[in-house]
Amino acid sequence: MRTRDRLAELQHLASGAAGGVYCDTVQPSEPDAAAKHDAHIQDIFREVERMRGWIHDLDNNSQLIRRLHSDPTFHTNKNLQDQLDAAVTASNATGLKVSGALRQFEGRLSTRNDAAARIARLQYAACRRLYADALQRHHTALDAVRAQQLLLLQHQIQLKSVRRARGVLQPSCRCRRRSARRCWSPTTSRCSWTTCAPRPRRRSAHCATWRRATRSSRASRPRWSTCATSSRSSRTSSRNSKTRWTA
Questions:
Q1: In this predicted structure, which of 37-46, 106-115, 117-126, 150-159 has the lowest mean pLDDT?
Q2: What share of the chain is helix, strand, coil (3-state, %, to 5)?
Q3: Which residue range(s) make up the domain with 45?
Q4: CA dist 241 → 117, 204, 213, 227, 232 (Å)
Q5: Rounded distance, CA 138 to CA 116, Å?
Q6: Please, what sign has the CA dihedral across residues 19, 21, 22, 26?
Q7: Does residue 178 sit within a domain?
Q8: Do residues 57 and 94 make contact, with C-beta atoms less than 8 angstroms apart?
Q9: Distance (Å, rounded) from C-alpha 170 to C-alpha 192?
Q10: Could you tell me which of 62, 76, 198, 215 has the C-alpha nearest to residue 143?
């Protein structure tokens, strides 16, 4: 059988005092006011649960960013990069929602000493702390991604500078001769000299065309000279024969 502790009530009745500590601390309330008070507390808990759900989504996005970035094929896989961009965009939207909800929740706080006010202040402090920790983890993941991207960019710049230096020291033409020859360009009909070779196959083809044209021109010169000398000799012989007959 359950019993109720009525020691304070009996002591108050025994003292016979109209006032006292018991009357000052215990204030009976109406049933409607108690129901409204309970409903207000339930609203506070529902709002806090919604904010904690958003904070949990932010943590999940941070873990997804770290997992995608740790993949060895991240820098060459376009699909993984798109997933990371989508996770960052979703995290930004979630962070804005949490910030707005916390700001509104803070505006409804009161300095009253009832149960609802104390619960609201306690839940606000807890949610704000959870949100700060989630933001710190998210910023750490993003800083790791930025640092890796910056390192890759610096390596690419170094490689490009090395290639440019090699292009200045060596001609872009792939001629095997020691003497530096210029590449003939069919588009400009003149020789061109470049420091870098973005299309080495076309350059080598231009060199081969230039060599073939030069070789053919050199090969055709002796034939023309022999033909000219033979024609001259035939003309002189015919003239001599005519002079002999006339004589």
A1: 106-115
A2: 75, 0, 25
A3: 37-169
A4: 137, 56, 42, 21, 14
A5: 32
A6: positive
A7: no
A8: yes
A9: 15
A10: 62
In this predicted structure, what is the pLDDT of residue 5? 72
CATH number reported for the structural domain that contains residue 103 in this entry: 1.20.58.70
Measured CA to CA, the distance from residue 193 to residue 185 in angstroms comes to 10
202-239 tens-digit pLDDT:
455 556 777 777 777 777 665 544 445 555 555 555 55
- Phi and psi dihedrals of 184, rounded to 5? -85, 130
- Tell me the pLDDT tens digit for each residue of 78-117: 999 899 999 999 999 999 999 999 999 998 887 777 788 8
What gap in Å lies between CA 51 and CA 130, rounded to an integer?
A: 10
Q: Are 74 and 80 in contact (CB under 8 A)?
A: yes
The residue behind tokens 């083809």 is 205
- 120-132: per-residue pLDDT in tens? 999 999 999 999 9
145 falls within a domain:
yes
DSSP 37-67: HHHHHHHHHHHHHHHHHHHHHHHHHHHHHHH
Considering the domain boundaries, does residue 58 fall inside one?
yes
The count of domains in the chain is 1
Residue 245 lies in a domain: no
Extract the tokens encoding 242.
């005519």
Cβ atoms 152, 75 nearer than 8 A: yes
Q: Which two tokens stand for residue 156?
A: 């690419």
* pLDDT at 161 exceeding the cut of 80: yes
